[in-house]
Amino acid sequence: MTKEILHIKNMVCPRCITSVEDILHELKYSFERVELGEATLNETLSADKVSALKDKLLKHGFELLEDKKDKIVEAVKTHIIQLIKNPSHTSHSTKLSSYLSKELGYDYSHISSIFTSSQGITIEKYVILQKIEYVKELLSYNELTLSEIADKLNYSSLAALSAQFKSVTGTTPSHFKQLTDQGRKSLDNLIP
Length: 192
Hints:
Layout: E1 4-9, H1 14-26, E2 31-35, E3 38-41, H2 47-59, E4 63-65, H3 68-85, H4 96-104, H5 108-119, H6 123-141, H7 146-152, H8 158-169, H9 173-181
Antiparallel strand pairs: 1-3, 1-4, 2-3
């Protein structure tokens, strides 16, 4: 049986995996597994089936990736999100560049160049933006202290987290937390 791996853009959470599985079931496509950013099918799709899949995916906010560079960019994003949400996935001493090179099978300078030219920001800046978004999410849940969040995300200290948070959002984590306790507000409205 021929297998085909499809790369899918905008898959960032377990609900995304379920949505793509539902689409594949609905289209009656046989698949082995669906993970963040990709689906392994038990068949090779005809052009008509690919077109039908593209249409269904787009209606749910996903995109079938066919360009090699797009696949690399999406893989970088997927790995970064996984690392941020589950930092135990690698050891603290593993550099992001080494990890991405190993996982994607390319030299980091090649990966970095493709990512930056496609996204307009460096991988490192993307990591910072994703970490800050995750910090905001954790703050809004009100389950962890700022120190616990700093530790969970491998910041060297609470001060390091606070400084990075303020440089990205324009406000401190404590101030953001106070705002979320009273109902979450858009950060665009906080900065004059």
